[in-house]
Sequence to fold (284 residues):
Amino acid sequence: MSVAASFDERACILGEGPLWHPERRQLFWFDIVSHKLLSRTTDGPVEWQFDRYVSAAGWVDAETLLIATQTDLIRFDLTTGQAVSLVPLEADNPVTRSNDGRADPQGGFWIGTMGINCEAGAGALYRYYKGELRQLRDGVSIPNATCFAPDGKTAYFADTAAHVIWRYALDSEGWPTREGEVFLDHRETGINPDGAVVDAQGRLWCAEWGGSRVACYSADAELLSTVPLAASQPTCPAFGGDDLSTLFVTSASENLPQGQEAQAGHTFAITGLAQGQREHQVIL
Fold:
């Protein structure tokens, strides 16, 4: 059995958005509540502080990330720390912030918003593609599990509060061709689907909040395996490492009694499970 080891022991309040930058060969992730972007290099831990919530990113080039914040999408220079706003993201709505997001195979960036206090139905799902931000779905409570099949023809998206993951058919430019259809329905079991990623074989790996595990599902929605974690609130997985065979998983310590879980909020690394897709480059 593959064992989840702590990759980084900084205890995030709400770890999210792990991204393996394929050109830098470096993992980035966020602590949303602390307004931080985090990473590690061979020299040790690195972090950048922001003045608002930050939650998810895609890579633009070797020095640049597209980052989703509470109020906009920004172009962020990792070398200088300079941020340039690209487009507002519910900037006129003080109730919401960004949450889960990921780049698709066509170069678009999908990003969900939600209520800062988890207000029901306060958020939405968007796609940013070649300078245009378009809303895809509204009435979302906790957007998560944004990920894509290797052939670029299918997107997945969850509302954790609804206990459902939907599947969307995509056109050649990555836009949904119709409404989403239910892929996984956890309403009876109460499983909370959080962040997810699809491996090179098309299997979906989903962090299940409150379940202390990452679950692997086939493209036909069959549960294939589970990976236990020493943290009850895993938030999002991402494949990385030199051969894309390491599954990194962020987690959260929020709302847990201090000291109840020694590894709550850590970022984990698990090897030998599968090979992931190369993270897709965002086209601005």
